[in-house]
Fold this sequence. Notes:
By secondary structure, the protein is mainly α. The protein has one domain (5-111): Winged helix-like DNA-binding domain superfamily/Winged helix DNA-binding domain (Arc Repressor Mutant, subunit A, Orthogonal Bundle), CATH 1.10.10. The chain has helices spanning 5-18, 21-33, 38-44, 49-61, 82-111; strands at residues 65-69, 75-79. A two-stranded antiparallel sheet has the order 1-2. A hairpin with a 5-residue loop joins strand 1 and strand 2 (75-79). Helix 1 (5-18) packs across helix 5 and helix 3 crosses helix 4 (49-61).
Amino acid sequence: MPPDTDSEAVAEQVFVALADPSRRGILATLASGGPATATDLADRLPITRQAIAKHLALLAEAGLVTAEPGERRRVRYRLRSAPMRVAQQFLAALARDWDGPLDALKNHLDRH
Length: 112
């Protein structure tokens, strides 16, 4: 059964977000260090604060991070795993759809 279009749209946004190594670095830093501001991330990564802000906006649009107000109007970003789980389920469904026909082809070729 193919994935539904909502799941496919979420998965597509996740894949686009993960395609950029800077965004993967931001996600890895948030995963290891917990919630952080764009300034905190700029201190930890070889990326300017302005570039980090742009990447965070795309990550937020994909639902992979959420912005939460902090002290002194500083916004902290926290990881959200739900979109990643949707993308994993999308890939698992594709793998299931591929495995059946590929196994049937292998069996057919093995018999002949």
